[in-house]
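We read letters as residues; the integers encode the fold. Take this protein.
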Amino acid sequence: MNNQDYLDKKFHNFVERINDNEIKKLWIEHPGIRKKFFNFIYNDIANIDEPNILEFGVRHGCSTALFLDVCKQNNGYLYSVDINDYSYKFQDERWKFICSKDNDLSKITPQIPKQFEVIFLDTIHKADHVSDIFHKYYDKLKIGGFFIIDDTNWLPYIKGAQHDDFFKEVNNKETFLKLLEIYSSNKDNFYLDINFCDTGTAKITKINNKKLNDTSKLLSREYSIKNLIRRIVYKLKKNK
């Protein structure tokens, strides 16, 4: 069985286990959700024994259904945080819902374990907020664990694209660039993989317990005089 057949079978079995028909319908009818969540991260988290998973952002419950399914299969626990009360979404002994802002550590920390195998962020999609939450909770991630960040692809929102949206384009691109800045300053501390399917997902794999380095701006030459001259020369040669 090749990898795609394996994923297809696992996806079918997963969907069959979803009890909520609305959530099941979203998984089936929106292939982008499957591509950026299931296909991109399932193999990484499916076999983690007794996982503790921390999720920021519930809303429709798609990611919650996936993480809770992994917990139910592998004897783990899911802790979901959202400023809106979604406690009615799931009734399961392996799920705890915490109604709170994601940055309220004083409220959240007493209700969660000290460390997690997976942390998932899908709340406010702005670069500074993503950076803030990442730095606040990174120490709670175990070595080998995954910090997953949703909405890191701006291409679906550019002018003339399918979901043409100025603010989402700008926010997602700024988040993408912020992650590159954080990674550039911490290449020895974690791996970074980014999936551009649908609205994109970033997957950070922690490789040691060192403290994160301060983030530095990328010293890009994109807007340098030298690059401006290069582009002008190239354009002149092309138009000859």
